[in-house]
Write the structure tokens for this entry.
Amino acid sequence: MNIRDDLQETVSFLQTFLEQAELDINVQSLSDDDFEALVQDERTVLNWLSKYQYYLHKDSFHLGFRLVSTSRIDGAMLGIYACSDGKLHIFLIESLIRENRAHPLNGRLTTLVVIAATYFLSLREESMGAYVVEPHPDLVPHYERFGFESVSENHEAMYASYEALLEAQQRILADFA
Amino acid sequence: MTKTNPKRLSAQAIRKLLLKNAKTLMSDQYRTSAPELSGEKKKQVAHS
């Protein structure tokens, strides 16, 4: 199975996950129109244009989130999976509804990306873990809850092995059972 | 090259685990108030 098939399987799983949590959020892989919207949208603060080549890459891993009732994108992520070392490199995660606490995606996007990464890695027998590049400093403790650790003192990137991601999920299950 | 690790849980087992955690992970206990931004920011354009 190639990356594109695993990406679509991950999208399908994440939609089931959202339905299990009873959230009216739709997830899809990014379309060309979605990517252009992210580049053009004045609400975005991340440099989507500079990562366009990663969106086009054959091993690209990307997701877009929106309300079930609307077409406008409310959150997105972009990464690359490197088969050679089994690591998913997440370059961009951005919520566009950061100021709208009533939106069901608000405060949940990062967790959803971690869930997607965990499931995607489970589909790849050679997978080793996931990097997140340049997390917002205030998000570092949130990533740590899911098994990520900073790879440098200034938090330029965080990494979680596949085993650490699974241990975190098993711990959560035990704590809330 | 694909390596197979016999100790790994199957994707189906992971799917089951994650779905069991869905309501917890999407509850307010796991909702962050931090800005959900990770990655390179756009360059600021200087106005003179």
